[in-house]
Write a structure and sequence with these properties.
Blueprint (H helix, E strand, L loop, with lengths): L2 E3 H6 L2 E7 L17 E9 L4 E15 L6 E15 L11 E3 L6 E3 L1 H11 L37 H4 L8
Parallel strand pairs: 5-6
Antiparallel strand pairs: 1-7, 2-3, 3-4, 4-5
């Protein structure tokens, strides 16, 4: 469930080894959601009064479109995560890795932080394979499936050279 009792964390560090399901309510429409559950493991401990530190790892797969041929494929997401949770005393110099804790909260929910770290780690522009040929610029055929039937395209800027007499160099 990725929710932990703050009193237990204050007593001693907690080992996190859980999953965030692909159908969890934390995901928002348009997110690069995971194919299967995201595996989260690490350590959750205190980092001073009212502050908690999570250091761990998340891994899973997300479905993305290839940037060359537009076919969908499963891309791995594998990321180290280091975040701080703090109450109202968030300092002005806090960066994006500090997540607020509601005053009076008795549980710490890691899910919103894991979701955000997942969004940052998920590839935005990926290739289905390193040698992806992409789509034909003229007809749109997937060149990974074979050559298309388009005539070779000649850049019109070179058309003036077509009328010149050809000489064979020796």
């Amino acid at each position: 469930m990725l929710c932990y009792d703050l009193r237990a964390i204050e007593a001693k560090a907690v080992t996190v080894d859980d999953t965030l399901n692909a159908d969890d309510a934390v995901w928002i429409e348009g997110d690069p959601t995971p194919v299967h559950a995201v595996h989260v493991h690490g350590r959750l401990s205190t980092a001073g009064t009212g502050r908690y530190y999570f250091s761990g790892h998340l891994s899973g797969e997300t479905t993305v479109s290839c940037r060359r041929c537009l076919s969908d494929f499963a891309a791995p997401v594998d990321e180290e995560v280091h975040v701080v949770f703090a109450g109202d005393e968030l300092s002005d110099d806090a960066d994006g890795d500090v997540y607020p804790i509601d005053p009076g909260a008795i549980e710490l929910d890691l899910r919103p932080a894991i979701r955000e770290e997942w969004l940052l780690a998920a590839p935005a522009y990926a290739l289905c394979r390193p040698d992806c040929q992409g789509l034909c610029a003229q007809c749109g055929a997937d060149k990974n499936l074979g050559p298309c039937q388009c005539a070779p395209r000649v850049d019109p800027r070179w058309s003036a050279l077509a009328g010149l007499p050809r000489t064979d160099a020796q």
